Amino acid sequence: MNRIALTTGLTFCLLGSSKLPAQATPLDWTALARESQAVLSDYLRVNTTNPPGNEILSARFLKAILDREGIEARILDTTEVGPNRANLYARLRGNGSKRAIALVHHMDVVPATPSSWSVDPFSGEVRDGYIWGRGAIDMKGNGVAQLMAMIALKRSGVLLTRDIVFIGNADEELGSTGALVFVKQHPDLLRDVEYLITEGADNVLDEKGRVVYFGVGVSEKRTFWQRLTVNGVPSHGSRPTKQNPVPRLVAALYKISQYETPLHVTPGVEKFFRDIARTYPEPQRSWLSNVTAALETPRARDWILSDVSWNAVLRNTISLTGLTGSNKTNVIPGVATADIDVRLLPDQDTTAFLKTLEAIVGDTAVHFTHLANTKTPLESPVDTDLFRAIERAAHDREPGAFVTTPMETAATDRPTYRKVGITTYGFSPFKIPRPEIQRGMHGNDERLTVENVGYGVRFYYDILRYAQ
Ligand SMILES: [Zn+2]
User: Fold this and answer.
1) 137 CA distance to ligand 1 middle (Å)
2) Domain identity same for 279 and 207
3) How many structural domains is the chain composed of?
4) How many Å lie between the centroid of ligand 1 and the Cα of residue 317?
5) What is the CATH number of the domain that holds 279?
6) In what order do the strands lie in the sheet with 87-92?
7) Which residues of the chain have a pLDDT value below 50?
8) 309 Cα–ligand 1 center, Å
């Protein structure tokens, strides 16, 4: 690995950066980009397929790099997360006058089927302008951009008012035990952390590859999964009885399926629609710029809700998914169950929603059981130094693009950190066309352009400097 060239003895001021600490050693961004590409290739060769994870290997890999740079780093939680697993923690110290910023990525990757790939998924091969490998997008690429930005800050010697914390978590793709254990075991390491950046939002490009907007994930839906159970009396299917649990369950499910959850616009979602309005012609532009009003108008409402993603960020949703009754056609079962995938908007009260469900069903024979732990609501404020720093750095990268706040409808590790009071954002520093994400992330031929690596390092570096 090459050290980046440092030009010492010179100080410089960034133009228009009067609020920034003035003195820094200039960085050779071309050399840093090349070095970062090599680090990503190496990182992709560390096989952290989960299961089993083996994140101890990635933790050692990252620690070795941090050690060489003189940045304090620790391998943690080797017993708590499981055999051959670990979390990685590092901290670059500032002067402590402001609270810290944490950069978090997960070190594990989902499995890859080599026969379906054009290259060995753990080769880190560079070909056709891409770095190929499982994790290139999700999310070792992002992790390397975070790592190298922190290293660049260290090398540049810029005065930091905030510590920069770097965390690599195990097991995000399966059980999230890495983040859960970290938060539980190390409140002391997180106590001074004000902001945290991890995955959880995408940037949108136009057909020419120009960035339309950068997404900063400030909120996500909460899973509130329920199992409905009806008990009955088993008997022979040839003699129908009133104690058959299946019809009662079906009646309950029908009522739920007919229930339209109320529309509700949260602040981040309202901002998202207002921001993207500019990319639409009239009348859609007017509708999106005031989505609350538009939802009162049937034509606008139908158009907005016809998008399944938009529909899902404007209301609580219920999908009827699992169903069990008898496994024999001629047997009335003793019990029938159904699982429903409920996703709540971040500001909703779980107890109140359960009461609503029970009222809709209106049958005390139908029992509701909560299936998974409901995470902390995630709705981070946008009126923050870090959000403004992201906007400013984004403008430096792409003056024609804007920054907005899409809500995530699936679940990430962010609520785990939000739970301890940290303002948490989802962010990707890369320009990746949607089809690349669609195909590569959890699919085949996951890859990141070589160019994106240096772009992402610079993006994070600017964000971290502007947030000082
Ligand atoms: Zn991920």
Assistant:
1) 8
2) no
3) 2
4) 23
5) 3.30.70.360
6) 72-76, 87-92, 164-169, 100-106, 193-198, 423-426
7) 1-18, 22
8) 19
